[in-house]
Amino acid sequence: MKTKANYKYLERIDTRFGDNDIFGHINNVIYYSLFDSVINRFLINKCQYNPFNSEVIAVSPETRCKFIQSLKYPEKIDAGLSTFKIGNSSVIYDISLFKTEQDTACAEGYFVHVFVNRDNMSEKVKIPKKIRAELEKISFKL
Amino acid sequence: MKTKANYKYLERIDTRFGDNDIFGHINNVIYYSLFDSVINRFLINKCQYNPFNSEVIAVSPETRCKFIQSLKYPEKIDAGLSTFKIGNSSVIYDISLFKTEQDTACAEGYFVHVFVNRDNMSEKVKIPKKIRAELEKISFKL
Amino acid sequence: MKTKANYKYLERIDTRFGDNDIFGHINNVIYYSLFDSVINRFLINKCQYNPFNSEVIAVSPETRCKFIQSLKYPEKIDAGLSTFKIGNSSVIYDISLFKTEQDTACAEGYFVHVFVNRDNMSEKVKIPKKIRAELEKISFKL
Amino acid sequence: MKTKANYKYLERIDTRFGDNDIFGHINNVIYYSLFDSVINRFLINKCQYNPFNSEVIAVSPETRCKFIQSLKYPEKIDAGLSTFKIGNSSVIYDISLFKTEQDTACAEGYFVHVFVNRDNMSEKVKIPKKIRAELEKISFKL
Fold first, then answer.
1. CATH of domain B4-137
2. Is 0.90 exceeded by the ipTM?
3. Do A17 and B24 touch (CB under 8 A)?
4. What is the pLDDT of residues A64-102, one digit of tens each?
5. Which of A16, A20, A32 to mutate to test the interface with C (most CBs of C within 10 A)?
6. 8 A C-beta contact, residue A109 and residue A35
């Protein structure tokens, strides 16, 4: 099981009232929204990635999540992000969500990004240098 | 136009990748999600309101928003919350969203809560004392 | 109170599991998502509006909703759309949401669109001819 | 690759304006919302499952999605749902999303449900008889 110590990049994030479903906990769908938001914020803030008008964009061919323990609004969440496989044009992220006061993960995600040309969204391109350098810095800590 | 100085309660909140629509700015719908989240967090954290199992719950008969200037993920947002009309069983909130570095509002919302019995969701009840006391503390500053 | 007979344009729409909040009914925020979706679908399907790459786009300076009666997933919803004020560069929509088996509205919305240049998103432009013609066809029926 | 012929249960579903992200296609997160909604609608409409107040509820320990081809609002989507492993207290669904006019899948999902006691949300219980019977009827067609 993942703990906060496995991650070099940690970020505290918000929850929203509507995230809770009729069972009073955060709906399974929302976890992916948090993954997507944390990963793109890392790319934008740390890697000079610009999804608004850059030629190269990152799209996802596959995502996955294991739900271990409930989270619920209004609690804050600590997200840990790491990379564990960096290829020529794709990267696999490992991402976990934690209660702020707990060290073991409530959810563990697996999220793939492939870098493609914005115009056709299918032609794979090399991961831009600056982005690759930053992705390497947050590789998974055993 | 509202400024941060009009609000006694201010809270910094998150945006999410999916909040941006195809125009690259936060979709109009999301503003209401932020209103809903900030207001309920105030009620839960400051007023001992428990939407999960309290007998009395707050539901909304009306909401409104004016969109003045675009916001966009990944920026953080400062939300200002105040009350400007507190009745027997209902309250009207005034809520504004600000860029963190800017003093004038990007969006101004109007959000009504009416307190009702959880069981039937229609019978109005008096605003609980503790909640009323806190609502009065954040009344709008001219 | 609005009834289905007030609308020339009616469309049956879906609800989603996550639309229901902890109170077991559709969260107030979602109503705006339904408004936004029905209006844009009308513009795209009936008016040759292309939000993906047209020069002129429609953005919203103001929206409002009155919540009269709960709706809940998994029920389908009938949305009625009409226009009641068409200016040079803006239009006000009236939109109501109905249970499929009921003639009176569960929610009544008010949604403003202003047509602007895509590039700056602030310079107002005339409503394109084809769009105006279609907006006029669904003006509110008393 | 999955085709519509692999599914005994097919349902046409809606998309929403806000489903499209800044790249003009449906955001990866939304696919899970569609999975969640189609699966629960099947359980509610076909299996007498009542997530609002039944003692036994279905929660998800794991979900996954492969994204093959873009979908975008305002198009409608055909969702195909099947089961491929039904245990004592859990079931694995296979779910695919299709363009209405195309026979091969744009996205393939894997979604696990485990049936638990509503009160504690952790004690596993046997899949209720009526639900099991219906889950068996939609087992995957090779």
1. 3.10.129.10
2. yes
3. no
4. 999 999 999 999 999 999 999 999 999 999 999 999 999
5. A20
6. yes
